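Researcher: Go.
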Amino acid sequence: MAEGPTEEAKVSLIQSAKKWGESSVPPTLLATLIASQHLQPPQYLPLSFVPVLLFSTYLNINSFSIDAAGLNAAWSGLYLVLARRRKQGFVNKWGVRGIVRGATMGLCAANVVGGGLTYALGRRKDEDAKRQDGLQ
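Model: Structure:
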């Protein structure tokens, strides 16, 4: 009896992470947060992530959700590594910029997990069939 609810919780956690990876909202939100941090003053290396994340949203809207999830997970992980390299003082962590930076890094981590699961567990045959049904 105790195994049933535990198994359901594991399945629902994986399913919710997979749904997160299939959504087109997280890469758009991440692109918005990255742009808000790095536009003033312009920092061109972090700003180069924004078009790629928006392209990931475009792919997702056009029924390439598995590829979009993989692209989103890879670039979110790359931005997470880049953002972790910048050191921030203790006082700066609790300002508006620090909170936005923390939210961005948390969203990156969620995108890596959700997009990675979607990319790893996605079935291209099902996605292709769904895309073909949409064309007809």
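Model: DSSP finds seven helices and no strands in the chain.
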